## 1
Amino acid sequence: MAAPEQKKKFALDTNVLLDLAADKDFAHTFREVFQEKGYALMVPPTATHELAFAAINKTGKDQRLAHRALACMREWGILPFDLVPVDHGITEQFTHRLTSRALLPEEEINDGQILAEAALAGIPVLATSDHHLLDIDEADLLTAFNDSDLAPVRPLHPKNLLKAVKAP
């Protein structure tokens, strides 16, 4: 599914969708405020795959939240997007660059793929609460994007994004 032709977009990491499914107030406030401001909230392919994996392979609360997140995305006005096949190779190369530079741990390759997918979709911000992404040095991440010929994507916590719009 192609991303809607909308200039203002945020990509959502898997954890934000799980926060929405868990009915966390900050997540729904974030969604409502930015949708009212005309932002499209988009889900990268790897985040969709992570939810599907959890819905099938996890148990208990994790499985229930993943099921709810997948079932409610349309109701919440959140759209998944896909990439053309050649872009998948680019995401793998970018992720390798992040792990080889120790910007992400080896076991967090999906985080790198989500960043690259957002970049390839032209989405400048990834809303996330994942400390692996939020703790990457901004200059190091910018350099990795530049070295990969990708537009930079800033990982930002939804609470910080909300603070930014409420600031005078």
## 2
Amino acid sequence: MKFLAIVFAILICIIQYRIWWGEGSYREIELLKQQIAEQQKQNDLLKKENEILRKEILALRTNPQVLEEKARENLGLIKPGETFYRIIPKEN
């Protein structure tokens, strides 16, 4: 009878160990839930950024003024007959 009680006690300890610290344990599941929540936040931010980029691409494809503005802003392009003035800030 004592032997059976010892075997059951050992089995309970093994099961408890696996529940709290082993593979697929409660702690591991909680960590995975936190990682999933963080990844979902990052995915939401990236989805918003992608939507902004889609709108910008659509504007560049459909509106020549936006394309011209970007070319002037990013590439420093000027039209024929225009004079380009570059203002360099004074260093302190």
